[in-house]
Amino acid sequence: MPDVITTTDLCKQYGRFMRVKDLDLRVPEGVVYGFLGPNGAGKSTTMKMLLGIARPTAGTISVFGQPFKSRNRLSILKHVGALIESPSYYGHLTGAENLRIICVLKGVPVSDINRVLQIVRLENQQDKKVSQYSMGMKQRLGLACALLGNPRLLILDEPTNGLDPAGMQEMRELICSLPQRYGMTVMVSSHLLSEIDQMATDVGIISQGELVFQDRLASLHEKSRPSIAVRTLNNLAAEKILGGQGIACLRQDDYLLLPQLSDIELADHISRLLASNIGVVRIEERRRSLEEIFLELTGTAVSL
Amino acid sequence: MFLRTIRAERMKLHHSPVWLAFLILPVLPAVMGTFNYQQNIGILQGQWYSLWTQHTLFSCYFFLPAIIGVYCSYLFRLEHLNHNWNAVMTAPIPVAYVYLAKLISASAMVLLTQAWIGVLFLISGQLCGLNLPIPPELPEWLFYGFVGGSVVCALQLCLSLVIRSFAVPVGMALIGGISGLVAVAKGYGVWFPYSLLSLGMRANQPGGAMQCSTEQFVLNALFYVGVCIIFAVLWLKKKDVVAG
Amino acid sequence: MIKSLVMEFWKIRRRKVWTIVAALLFMQILWLLWGVNRMDAHELSQGWMFFLYQFPLLNAIMVPVIAAVTASRLCDIEHKGQMLKLLPTLMPAGRLFTAKFLCGAFYMLAVVLLQIAVMVIAGLVLGFAGNPPLDKLLYYLLFTMTVSITILLLQQVLSLLFKNQMIPLAVGVIGSFAGLFSMFLPPGLGKFILWGYYGVLMFVRMDWDRVTRITDFYYVPVDWSGFGILVVAFCLIYLIGRSLFIKKEV
Fold first, then answer.
1. Residues 75 to 94 of C: which have CB under 8 A from any A CB?
2. If both were cysteines, with which of A109, A207, B6, C192 could A298 make a disulfide (CB 3.0 to 4.6 Å apart)?
3. Domain-embedded: residue B243
């Protein structure tokens, strides 16, 4: 399957500051691509370049297999829905009227408005002025605008921003369902790992403008290298015994970390320890959390 | 506490080249008015007094109210944007101070403008080679003009407080200015707030007393400013804060 | 393009842009008519010329503000809702610029047509000598429209490029002031100031005799070179302003 978005050596410079450096994005078709990075890493800037509202300093972009140039930009964007940073709207018009304007500009039949309102659950508020919407409603309206016309590609910048837990859950489920139900490819950016973990199938991690990881989400999990932590009443002796069996132990606080073992092997070692009169008081499985992996990859603290 | 509010106001205006507009505006009538004076020196025989009319006539009725409108709109634009009303109204300062601090800020700008107008007037007069002594009433004109200008500030601030659009109060300032012209011509000048500016500056008839009594002028000015302050405070107190 | 233009009008529903425009126009008409009540025979015989002299003068004061307010209202809805992020992904930026301009120009046209209507009706009611001079009124329409939409265009460029509407409005007020003054300067100088073109393209002059205190109006030939300069200025502002807006990064 061809990639929906491909960038080569994409760069963006503001003044003397390189916001985005040599980015090589590959977004496959029909996936939910999680674009992850700390605040200020360059996620929004990259997405703006993908939509052509910011001009790259260097590098090329290709969308749907075609090079993204100012000539064919709008014909490509006809099949793209976008929500960048905060939702865009006319406050003095109602939700339905805002959607109507987008419909007319996109050339989408007006009947589509009801469909997208149902998807985001805003049918009851469609005749209220948007300036009176709560933040969550504005966010949902922004998503509705992006969904109009059933685009092939959705680019969403922090779509769960400002939503309450129930709303976030709904949004997540919605985004996950989009590839199967409508055949869309979704590119979601976030700084919330847990969110990306639940939604995405492919992940790209950006840090300080550079792409530090890009692969399926499963490979990111594989990096977590689980280990078994054992606490005994006599760690030194236990370490010697296990070392004698060829098991390399790492000491961490008052735990011994063993590499991943099968259940039978582990039971075997534990019984050997017990046979030597070493009381075993804790056996835990330790997985490096996604946070820790992220921290290692980006070298920065994770934001909440 | 009030001083702190005023300091905060000044800080809000940091990085705003707002004063540029007030700097440039009086230069226009100074230059062009002087030029016009020179061209018509046969008709305009009042020397300093005629020059003064040239400088101030159009400013007072149309363009000073308009630029004051722009400035006052800007002062409240700072609050209307970015949900700032939420922050302003929950700060531990009395509601009246919010309005008063802005009024002081706007009036200070008017005062500086008046001083600048005076300076330009003196320079122009020298350039024209006027040999009569400088009119002693000049400071008086500038002062009463400042009073009249403050009334316009108070009114425009009320308009900008209520109307969230930037441009509409400016249009209304122009309408006010023209109505002021009509009011003065009909003789009701002292009763109409926008006319006080031109009356104070003696734009029509410099040299001699105001076209109304000074006491009436000052009383009316204070009255209008007072009404505006009361209106603004009541509005801020009663209305729910809508920040968006 | 028609679609975009219709959208522009649709976007400003409930904004009541026409309210402030109507108020300003109403004020201008009142101001003009205020001096018209008592006109003697001599003045009535020159009634049409009187209107064609007064209106451009008043226009120099009022129409730039109308243009600035209209342009500002049309453009600040985009800034307030951060639509300039979304709109360029839906339509070409150049088309947005042109559609907004046409929408604002419509208001300017309405203003000028109303002015002409008032001129004709008032003139007929007051009993000005002769029929309304159609050719002169058409010249008035052409010249006033051209100056007004050029100012509107400049205001729109400023209102779109700057989020802070203070800049376009301050420019509008100062510019109109400069234009008014330039009308009292020797004719050549008025050509350098855009706002002064109300005066440059005026084709009625006034002669006030101090002794007899009679004002006399007379037609002068139209300054076509001035008109030419104005048209060139319009094209320049359109091309430069439009490309600046298209290139603007959000």
1. 77, 80-83, 85-92
2. A207
3. no
Q: Per the structure block, which two tokens stand in for A84?
A: 């960048």
> Which domain covers residue C167, as residue numbers?
2-247
**Which residue out of B165, B182, B194, B242 would a mutagenesis test of the C interface target, given it has the greatest number of C Cβ atoms within 10 Å?**
B165
Quick one: which of C79, B83, C13, C17 has its CA closest to A93?
Answer: C13
Number of domains within chain B: 1
Give me the domain span that covers residue B11.
2-238
Per DSSP, helices labelled H in C81-133 are 83-86, 93-126
Q: Which residues of B touch C (CB under 8 A)?
A: 18, 20-21, 24-25, 28-29, 32-33, 35-36, 39, 43, 58-59, 62-63, 66-67, 70, 73-74, 77, 165-168, 170-172, 174-175, 178-179, 181-182
**Distance between CA atoms of A232 and A274, rounded to whole angstroms?**
10
Report pLDDT for A301.
46
B244, part of any domain? no
Is B125 part of a structural domain of the chain?
A: yes
| Average pLDDT over every residue of B170-184 | 88
pLDDT: which is higher, B42 or A78: A78
Model confidence over A201-252: pLDDT tens digits? 999 988 888 888 888 888 877 777 778 888 888 888 888 888 888 877 888 7
Q: What confidence tens digit (pLDDT) does each residue in A45-80 have?
A: 899 888 888 888 899 999 998 898 878 888 888 889
The model carries a pTM of 0.82
ipTM for the complex shown:
0.83
